[in-house]
Amino acid sequence: MSTTQSERLRELLEPLVASQGLDLEEITVDSVGRRRVLSVVVDSDTGADLDRIADVSRVLSAKLDESDAMGEGEYTLEVGTPGAERALTEHRHYVRATGRLVRFQLGEGGDLVARILTVDDEGLDVEVPGVKGRKATARRLAFGDVDKARVQVEFNRKDGPADQSDSNEKEEEA
Predict the structure, then answer these.
(1) DSSP string of 6-27?
(2) Distance in angstroms (rounded) separating the CA atoms of residues 107 and 117
(3) Contact, 162 vs 152, CB < 8 A?
(4) What pTM did the predictor assign?
(5) Rounded to a whole number, what is the largest CA-CA distance in the chain?
(6) So what's the pLDDT on residue 161?
């Protein structure tokens, strides 16, 4: 997708997504054979259930039908959420991932898997799980030290409120 088309689509769709109480995270247009697929990824601090996704999909579809933003030819609109193993690229993503296990690629060249405890404007406090019977350790990461971060899926966590939200996400994605 050209930068101009991407910018035009974002300008057109972002206010509509925001009016539904959601954040526009990503827009992509891919060619699948002779058809095009417009994928719109949305999220919010409280998540996005199927009803909210359906509502925003109807609003976006109506707006796209009345505009020429997608040009001539058929296309399919897909609206969804970032998914369980989302990349953390914005401050709000880190806040939403509080309590979750995350794999960090650090600027110093190492990888770190840790649970996000708190997030502020400068960085985050994490808990590094203990290995071989050792206790977990706390660590502070500045945002500038993190090159990449991605939420990890946990299937066996049994110790906190994130259990319920994790299982809800899995059901919604199925």
Answers:
(1) HHHHHHHHHHHHHHTT-EEEEE
(2) 21
(3) no
(4) 0.70
(5) 61
(6) 43
Helix, strand or coil, per DSSP, at residue 54: helix
How many CB atoms sit inside 10 A of residue 110's CB?
A: 8
CA-to-CA separations, 79 to 24, 60, 164, in angstroms, rounded: 10, 9, 24
Provide the residue count of the chain. 174
How many CB atoms are closer than 10 A to CB 149?
23
CA distance linking residue 136 with residue 57, whole number of Å: 43
pLDDT for position 133: 81
Contacts of 29 (CB under 8 A, 6+ apart): 1, 5, 6, 9, 36, 37, 38, 39, 70, 75
- CA gap 128, 47 in Å, rounded: 26
The answer to whether residue 48 scores a pLDDT higher than 60 is yes
Region of 114 (left: φ > 0; alpha: ψ -120 to 50; beta: rest) is beta
